[in-house]
Amino acid sequence: MDFDAIVVGGGIAGASIAYELAADRRVLLLEQERQLAYHTTGRSAAIYLQSYGNAAVRALTVASRTDFDRLSELVDGTPLLTPKALLWTADDEGAAHLEELLESVPQLRPVAPAAAVELCPALRPENLALAAEDVSAMEIDVHATHEAYVRGFRQRGGTIRAEAPVERLAASDGAWRVESGSFTAEAPVVVNAAGAWGDVVAERAGVRPVGLQPLRRTIFTSPVSGWQDLDAWPFIGDAGYHFYFKGEHDQVMASPADETPDVPRDAKPADIDIARAIQVINEYTRLELRSVRSAWAGLRTFAPDRSPVVGDAPDAPGFFWFVGQGGYGIQMGPALARTGAALALRRPLPADVAALGVTAEALSPSRPGVASRPHTAPGHSRS
For position 315, what pLDDT does the model report? Predict the structure, then answer.
């Protein structure tokens, strides 16, 4: 047989699990675009937040912390994490949610509104009912993290084939045959790490989809004037999920924290989303944003319950799901990749992951609410 495993998708999900599998397996990584990480991974403004996501996501994020230090050795010691505090803010409407976070997330500490304004002087105190700081937060060097996995994968003998969209998958005699144009390869295991295209890949394999929903997220930069030391400000996140931003030299990078249902494609920002973000950020801050320097969009793909889907397809032996990372794929990626590789190879969960309460059942494509999801496959567009 050509390979022990074929991984479909070259973003952070595919590259990370391919690296882990390649420790003792022959692995092929297929990517439909000319370059790896072209879509969501390459457009992420990732920050490492132990207070972000549901319980499973937070546990996997905590378990990933030391992995980033180890991975930095694969990119010549480049730091993958840089300390950057996060300040959660809330108006009267969002205060209840922030109070819930304070009760359930030990990494958070309450901050008086006046102290929050000292940390970020642009905040409007009249719209600030509650604040909390996550001192465990860090910025992630997304490019270097992905490159670490790619380098490590190649060092372990892995094979990468770009511009290779998977057009057909068929199972026969204990093997999966994958076809991309005139190229074919066989392996006993196919890992579906295709992100927004996850259900599309499943359909082409004759496997029942899990109900993935790509959601568009818009990000833009806007120049600001009259403010100093913007880089020293914490990352600002609205607990009501109306916006977030961070200072960068003479500008802010901001988002309306939008989750607009979309289809698998090369996502583009919508002017109305940017306008809405500028309006709401100007309402909650004194930044007085007026123009846009650059803008982009990416697809954050979720399962119905917003937890990752990791495990064997119940109706197709050898077809392994590794999708649904949503907006957390980079911060929890290292531990999730170790977990996925262990499950794909029929091994116990990593001890540190299991100790934090993560179970195979909680991630399984057979769990309630995922396997029972009605068939609602998204479109098949590539661009």
Answer: 87
